[in-house]
Amino acid sequence: MRQQVITAADLSRADVNRVLDRAAEIADDPGAVDDRLAGEVVALCFFEPSTRTRMSFETATHRLGGDVVDMGTPEESSVAKGESLADTVRVVDGYADAIVLRHPREGAATLAAEFVDAPLVNAGDGAGHHPTQTLLDLYTMRSTVGLDGVTVGVMGDLKYGRTVHSLATALTAFDVDQHFVSPESLQLPPGVRLDLHDAGATVREHTDLEAVLSELDALYVTRIQRERFPDESAYREVAGQYRIDAATLEAARDDMVVMHPLPRIDEIAPDVDDTDHAVYFRQAHNGVPVRMALLDLMLADDQGGEWE
After folding, report:
1. Residue 117 half-sphere exposure, CB side, CA atoms within 13 Å?
2. Which one of 15, 88, 100, 205 has the fewest beta carbons within 10 angstroms of its own beta carbon?
């Protein structure tokens, strides 16, 4: 099986469908995968805060019958003594059968993968990529509106939002029209835009949601990434500019879904929660079967062969 999952570009359309199909099987019959990872140890190395990703990977491992070792916070580890990322992962590589890494520096997962033999999964690297979030996003999308012949809008912080970068990349493998809505200061980074063009995608950018809302099958909302801004004043200039509520969605299609990687701050009003559009909590729950599927395919799959 594939040894590393660093960016969404590492996964072909066939790879994605294989993970999503396996996740659907697991969701339908969770008991069928009991003990699939018996005797396997998954190490969680999170160098920045996490709730959903950390807990869903831990839950996924336990539900597969595996064990988890957790590095804890950087302040509780040898990182506080100045240990390098390379040395940390080399040590952890001797303790675990797979490593799940989150780090505030873009490119950290790529660097770490050079120093380990165990399968490594990028659980978010700064403003870079978050491929397992993308897998659960695609699973949610496929189960609600589909992944071919649909129109998707992505709104919010497109510059620093790693979930956006990963999702936009993955959607190029499907028949999806993508629209990007943000303030000019938070548009897609040039490198991401170029990658999308190279993959054959048409990048349509807007500063106003109303211009495209009625066309969308799915609206993917993201928070403004406060922790990535170079200074507080730059954050305050754009905070709160892009917010939706139930009234906003009156112009949307009845079957359009609203997604969000969470946590939300104020970009989705609570009154959206009670509408048929809201699927973001279901989206978060999908993280468990999707990450179970990924770990199962990486560590316990008995079909042999490589991913495409």
Report:
1. 5
2. 205
Q: Which contacts of 103-111 are long-range, i.e. CB under 8 A and separated by 24 or more positions?
A: 103/47, 103/48, 104/47, 104/48, 104/227, 108/47, 109/6, 110/6, 111/85, 111/86
**CA 24, CA 87: separation in Å to the nearest integer?**
37
Instruction: State the pTM of this model.
Output: 0.92
Domain 131-284 has CATH 3.10.450.50: no
Each domain of the chain, given as residue ranges in start order, spans 4-126+286-300, 131-284
Question: Quick check: 235 and 193 in contact, CB under 8 A?
Answer: no
pLDDT band, very low/low/confident/very high, at 305 (cuts 50, 70, 90): very low
Pairing of strands 41-46, 257-259: unpaired
- pLDDT interval class at 251 (50, 70, 90): very high
Note the pLDDT tens digit of each residue in 162-184.
Answer: 899 999 999 999 999 999 998 88
Q: Map residue 268 onto helix, strand or coil.
A: strand
Residues in contact with 129: Cβ distance below 8 Å, sequence separation at least 6, in sequence order: 6, 7, 8, 109, 122, 162, 165, 166, 169
Does domain 4-126+286-300 bear CATH number 3.40.50.1370? yes
Segment 266-295 shows an average pLDDT of: 96
List Cβ<8 Å contacts ≥24 apart for 271-279.
271/245, 271/246, 272/244, 272/245, 272/246, 274/246, 275/246, 275/249, 277/219, 277/249, 277/252, 279/140, 279/144
Q: How far apart are CA 306 and CA 53, in angstroms?
A: 26
On the question of a common fold for 4-126+286-300 and 131-284, the answer reads yes
